[in-house]
Amino acid sequence: MGRHSIDKVYSPLMRPVDSGVMIAPAMSQDPRIPQNDVGAGYRARRAEIDAAVSRVLASGWYILGAEVAAFEREFAEWLGIAGAVGVANGTDALALALRALDIGPGCSVVTVSHTAVATVAAIEMVGATPILVDIDPRTYCLDPDELAAVVDRWRDGGDGVPPIRAVVPVHIYGHPADMTRILPIARGAGLRVVEDCAQAHGATLRGARVGTLGDAAAFSLYPTKNLGALGDGGAVVTGDPELRERIVALRQYGWRERYVSAIPGVNSRLDEVQAAILRVRLRDLDARNARRREIALRFDCALAGTGLAAPPVELDAVHVYHQYVLRTPGRNAFRAALAARGIDTAIHYPVPVHLQQAYAGRIPLGPAECARTAAAADEIVSLPMFPELTDAQVDRVCAALATLRI
Ligand SMILES: Cc1ncc(COP(=O)(O)O)c(C=O)c1O
């Protein structure tokens, strides 16, 4: 995210703030607190990661080898699912899962507009038509009533929209989507379910880890994610061994064996260096998620009495706080107030997919026309959130939050 100069923060233009947020005239001399710090994650495990990388470099085998196979086993075991397949990134993971389920041209796939553009790009990569529906404003995840409404309207196609064949719920920010309601709607309409778990490694719903609830799930292993490589990476997981075999073939030219393409595939391989790093990272993923929850609890407490609501967590869910997201109509002033105290924030995401130039006006929408998504995009703000935030840094963010009056 951009760095704020002190001039900018103290510009007189910032004074008549865009809501009731009062900015106390504070200027931090302390070091800046970044919104995220991928390098801190590396430094915390430097010796183990360096050893893992050296081991691979010395092995002479760099793509799809023993490290990838071991990571796939360990990740599947950690999730509690039969199979995982390492691929090049999270976007490919979604596209390969959809392709393996025979979702392509002539099919529509329902997902949300409140997501990384990658979710929608993956649906179009396989030649399918995305239908974008609105969110539950509490969790920012897919609203099951919207899914039911578009299924009623377009299950068998119509108005130029192909029949709906799949749904991609996104567990955004690390909070599970309402799978308890989404799954029966999907099953009742014969839809395949591909979970987008890019932001939710370790989140649970009724005790089950997300990624184990649909037909298949896609994980991004991009460096900023809760489980992140030090380059690109992704994984598809599924409990269906035949589906897993299909994805294994699809990720490498459709090979059933070397140089024998049984089906048309692509190149989406995970490399050995990233797999070895991910194996190190997987070992303390639960602890790092617990630290995220601890930080979130501190922020929740600091918000009490400020007029800003802490992000709600549904009773049957465990949130893994990929992002800690607040909502305020006075976002600019709020961000400026934190920036003045040396605290960076970010917006995930400022423009919903259905309003992006690449998609605007040509994607079918659910009945609410994503109005709640658009309203959220104008007000959301993400606080600093990564496991290596020190207690002193968390204290500083809490102290800044406590001084705000909304
Ligand atoms: C919700 C969501 N889906 C999909 C992706 C795509 O992952 P990648 O960047 O690894 O392709 C991301 C990552 O940005 C994401 O946040």
Question: What topology emerges from the helices and strands here?
Answer:
Layout: H1 6-9, H2 38-44, H3 46-59, H4 66-79, E1 83-87, H5 90-100, E2 108-112, H6 117-125, E3 129-133, H7 144-154, E4 164-167, H8 179-188, E5 192-196, E6 204-205, E7 208-209, E8 216-220, E9 234-238, H9 241-250, E10 255-257, E11 260-261, H10 272-283, H11 285-303, E12 317-318, E13 325-327, H12 331-340, H13 371-377, E14 380-382, H14 391-403
Helix pairs in contact: 3-10, 4-10, 5-6, 5-9, 7-8, 11-14
Bound molecules: pyridoxal-5'-phosphate.
Pyridoxal-5'-phosphate is lined by residues 89-91, 115-116, 118-119, 170, 196, 198-199, 220, 222, 234.
Characterise this structure.
With 406 residues, this protein is of the alpha/beta class. The chain has 14 helices and 14 strands. The protein folds into two domains: 6-30 and 284-345 and 383-403, Aspartate Aminotransferase, domain 1 (Alpha-Beta Complex); 43-283, Aspartate Aminotransferase, domain 2. It has a seven-stranded mixed sheet with strand order 1-9-8-5-4-2-3, with helices on both faces. Helix 4 packs parallel to helix 10 (272-283). The longest helix is centred in the C-terminal third of the chain and has 19 residues, at 285-303.
